């Protein structure tokens, strides 16, 4: 174990250090409470041996500071040559786990450390479990907001985040833009080439468009089926239109071949852009409906293009 000794008496520090080294432990020495607190944070020991009586900052004050830092994870043993029941209780309530009497006997020290090693081992196991649980929680949250097929944001994340952005843009009076996107003639493509090819096409389009949506706060989400929605915070309509055109060109340049339609050799998308500075009387549905209307106009006009509806 890595053991931190905090004791203002040089002779006691050296005696304990000799015992611990002979047992195969790594030892860190501190001659004052302040130095001990510093080394505790710097060295991350498995166990602390702490003298009760020290000038300036006594053991009770030190252990309270260590517990504030560590929240009770690390075993701490008080060292004392004069111990009564009141001092013992005060030490335990202050945050210590046990006591060792001075002068330190090697046999007693070895026995105490054997018990503390079990606590240290449980601590490491608990830390490992906590990290694993935190990682799993992170993954669960990620999957909850992620579309399983494409890996981009899902409808749940879109609804939650767009609502937040709408209210923020209303407060700050900034222009919020969205782009509604639909893969052209996708049903026919899916029926002709099969569902696996259809899934591959959706995935390829999503990944290609995601590569373009890079600014902080921007994101693309799968709206449903072959539909997508791009959210562009603090973006004017003309800028949003340019981004939409870039998306349109990028999907066309994927060259996903289709021979199910005479008029369309490669897979394309239609896009509807809507932009507004939200007011208190406005709703998020107004922005979405306007983008849907623009998307419908793009399809009516021949697909593979961008249309804009101003609010």
Offer a concise description of the structure.
The radius of gyration is 33 Å and the shape is elongated. The protein is α/β, with parallel strands linked by helices.
User: Percent of residues in beta strands?
Assistant: 15-25%
Main beta sheet strand tally, sense and closure = 5 strands, parallel
- Arithmetic mean of pLDDT: 90
Which residue ranges are poorly predicted, with pLDDT under 50 across at least 5 consecutive positions?
none
- Given the structure, what is the number of helices? 10
Q: What is the N-to-C succession of helices and strands?
A: EHEHEHEHEHHEHHEEHEHE
> How many angstroms does the end-to-end distance come to?
68 Å
Defining key terms:
311 residues; alpha/beta; 5-stranded parallel sheet; 5-stranded mixed sheet; 10 helices; 10 strands; 18% strand
Can you give a write-up of this model?
The chain has 311 residues and is an alpha/beta fold. Helices cover 52% and strands 18% of the residues. It has helices spanning 10-22, 33-43, 59-70, 85-94, 106-144, 155-172, 186-193, 195-212, 237-252, 284-300, and strands spanning 2-6, 26-30, 47-51, 76-80, 98-101, 176-183, 219-224, 227-232, 269-276, 306-310. Helix 7 (186-193) crosses helix 8 and helix 8 (195-212) crosses helix 9 (237-252). The model has no long low-confidence stretch (mean pLDDT 90).
């Amino acid at each position: 174990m890595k053991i931190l000794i905090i004791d203002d008496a040089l002779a006691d520090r050296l005696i304990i250090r000799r015992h611990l080294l002979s047992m195969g432990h790594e030892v860190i020495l501190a001659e004052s409470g302040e130095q001990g607190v510093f080394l505790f944070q710097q060295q991350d020991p498995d166990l602390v041996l702490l003298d009760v009586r020290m000038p300036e900052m006594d053991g009770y004050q030190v252990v309270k500071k260590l517990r504030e830092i560590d929240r009770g994870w690390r075993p701490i043993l008080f060292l004392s040559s004069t111990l009564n029941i009141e001092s013992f209780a005060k030490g335990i309530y202050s945050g210590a786990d046990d006591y060792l009497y001075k002068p330190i006997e090697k046999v007693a020290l070895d026995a105490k450390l054997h018990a503390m090693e079990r606590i240290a081992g449980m601590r490491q196991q608990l830390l490992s479990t906590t990290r694993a649980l935190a990682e799993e929680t992170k993954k669960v949250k990620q999957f909850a907001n992620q579309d399983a097929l494409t890996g981009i944001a899902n409808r749940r994340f879109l609804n939650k985040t767009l609502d937040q952005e709408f209210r923020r843009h209303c407060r700050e009076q900034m222009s919020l833009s969205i782009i509604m996107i639909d893969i052209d003639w996708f049903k026919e493509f899916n029926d002709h080439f099969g569902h696996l090819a259809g899934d591959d096409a959706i995935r390829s389009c999503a990944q290609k468009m995601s590569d373009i949506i890079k600014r902080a706060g921007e994101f693309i989400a799968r709206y449903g089926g072959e539909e997508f929605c791009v959210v562009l915070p603090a973006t004017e309509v003309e800028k949003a239109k340019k981004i939409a055109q870039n998306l349109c060109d990028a999907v066309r340049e994927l060259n996903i071949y289709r021979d199910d339609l005479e008029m369309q050799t490669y897979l394309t998308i239609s896009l509807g852009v809507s932009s507004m500075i939200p007011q208190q009387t406005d709703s998020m549905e107004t922005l979405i409906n306007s983008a849907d209307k623009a998307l419908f106009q793009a399809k009516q006009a021949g697909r593979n293009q961008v249309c804009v509806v101003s609010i």
